């Protein structure tokens, strides 16, 4: 519980954390930002790292001449692209093997029909998904992994991977650079971060909930006597 509270406190006060870190360790802040963005996009077990906040606040520090803007953009772009690539390769390597297993215990929980649907979805909409997922916390961590599992081609994946990373990094870093040091925004930065995360996550969560409820309602209707008449 204490660890969770510390993490929430870090996310809510990431600007103060970065400010102190820059004062104490200087250029090492670039390595920290690279590592956080890489892990958030590259490791499916770390989807809750504050990538959006870091990009925005990094831009604000660049505007205050505490970081170099060009170096920050290039570093974060490399971290975002390589993180997604690693995630994709892991999904591509282990996904099909897991779903083709004949281990009785695993077969009870695996849905091969769902894998085929995912494959078909990425054939039709995979490019848009990879780009748009960049702006949705948690979803951006799983999107490249699912792309790998579904068998999306490397060439097509990398095209949209780079485009999405470039758009994500440039937009958030430059927003932070031009607006992050405005007194009002600086004062209410934590609220703005939470509102931004909520605006991205809540519609996705509500959509998933609605789909689940619709599916359960359909299943319930199908089980009623005489429903097939």
Automatic annotation (TrEMBL):
It is a multi-pass membrane protein. Residues 49-177 form the VTT domain. Keywords: Cell membrane, Membrane, Transmembrane, Transmembrane helix. It is found in: Cell membrane. The chain crosses the membrane at residues 27-49, 69-90, 159-179, 191-213. It comes from the Bacteria. InterPro entries: DedA-like, VTT_dom. Pfam families: VTT_dom (PF09335). PANTHER family: INNER MEMBRANE PROTEIN DEDA-RELATED, TRANSMEMBRANE PROTEIN. Belongs to the DedA family. This is VTT domain-containing protein.
